[in-house]
Write a structure and sequence with these properties.
alpha/beta; Aspartate Aminotransferase, domain 1; Aspartate Aminotransferase, domain 2; 3-stranded antiparallel beta sheet
């Protein structure tokens, strides 16, 4: 009857989604990658006024035009609406790309976003892990990347900076080296940049499309403007490449949700106001990051300072238990949700992901509870 195929059997449950429904009314949730604020009021109004009908498969033209303009403003790209495809979340964008192009080996971050290996296996491709080692602040060693590519000969590579789960950022110089190497070797780059507007300490985000034409950039304004549940993302690339992503996107999604598209149009049409909104949120999250990193190190959870996104990735190795065991203990004894780092890849083992995309009150309470538990270990 309904026997799962080998591809589905190869997929592990996301440690993030596994935690989602757990806990009770007093649980402090430091697990979910979701901003704790909603969109500006003018975005709300645009969504409320929007219709409920289907939209074009490629997304509303006005939205694609506005995204092209934003990328010109932020990154100096000279693109138009034909270089943009609107998708039902960044996750769907990645799966549409995988369905369009993957077939051989795909190089992905270790540790990296939990959806990458599942999507690669679902389309029948083979995962090759690219180490992001803690000794290197969870960044890519370009020499190591070259050696792996020479040995494994991957067809595609997924990059993710700022990184989920580590918050690390690869500098522009090394990203250019990676881009040049991939161009020479014929390796297609998929650059997941959903946290591009969450960089701290005046760090510059290098959009991969600034560095090479051999890239598809995946993004989602839903995180930055507070529309996470709207499930809206987009892909940027060459027109002929985007047309092929659209072929996979159509049977997967038909069209992205229509109402939030009008909300994002409003955000981009009022770009100066939106930039002020984002600047305030980025400054708030930087303060939360600094506070969380300081407390984590004070209570004995060694933690590097992330440069972007909104996660810390502290080391729990000294407690003599796996990341999964530690996460379960903290939920059971402290009633706090943190994510098992091993779920992000073998090099995430010995760590947990803790989100600071929540109130300072929640951060204080959650870390105080964790402190009391680890004092008993």
């Amino acid at each position: 009857m309904f026997e799962p195929n080998k591809k589905v059997q190869s997929v592990d449950e996301s440690p993030i989604r596994r935690l989602f429904a757990k806990g009770g009314p007093n649980t402090v949730d430091l697990s979910i990658g979701q901003t704790d604020y909603g969109p500006p009021e003018f975005v709300h109004k645009a969504i409320d006024k929007a219709h409920y009908r289907y939209g074009p498969t490629e997304g509303l033209k006005k939205l694609r035009e506005e995204i092209a303009l934003r990328y010109g403003d932020l990154y100096g790209l000279k693109i138009n609406s034909d270089n943009v495809l609107i998708t039902g979340s960044g996750t769907e964008a990645l799966f549409s790309i995988a369905s369009s192009f993957f077939g051989g080996k795909v190089l992905i971050p270790n540790p990296g976003f939990v959806m990458y290996p599942s999507q690669i296996r679902l389309v029948g491709s083979e995962v090759v892990w690219l180490p992001h080692r803690k000794e290197n602040n969870f960044k890519i060693d370009v020499d190591e990347l070259v050696k792996i590519c020479e040995k494994e000969n991957p067809s595609y590579m997924i990059l993710n900076f700022p990184s989920n789960p580590t918050g690390s950022i690869q500098n522009r110089k090394s990203l250019q080296e990676i881009a040049d190497f991939c161009q020479k070797k014929g390796i297609g780059i998929i650059s997941d940049e959903v946290y591009d507007l969450f960089t701290y300490d005046d760090r510059d985000h290098a959009c991969m499309s600034q560095l090479t034409e051999n890239a598809l950039v995946v993004n989602s304004l839903s995180k930055s403007i507070g529309l996470c549940g709207s499930r809206l993302g987009f892909v940027i690339g060459k027109e002929e490449v985007i047309k092929n992503v659209k072929k996979a996107h159509q049977p997967i999604m038909a069209c992205a949700p229509i109402k939030p598209q009008y909300g994002v149009i409003a955000a981009l049409e009022n770009w100066d106001e939106t930039k002020k909104f984002l600047k305030g949120k980025r400054e708030l999250y930087q303060k939360r990051r600094d506070f969380m990193v300081k407390i984590l190190n004070m209570i004995g959870l060694k933690c590097h300072k992330p440069e972007g996104a909104f996660y810390t990735f502290p080391d729990i190795g000294k407690f003599g238990m796996s990341s999964s065991e530690f996460s379960k203990l903290i939920l059971e004894k402290a009633d706090v949700k943190v994510v098992d780092g091993g779920g992000f890849g073998s090099l995430g083992e010995g760590h947990v992901r803790i989100s600071y995309a929540t109130s300072e009150e929640n951060i204080k309470e959650g870390l105080e509870r964790i402190k009391k538990v680890i004092e008993t270990i």
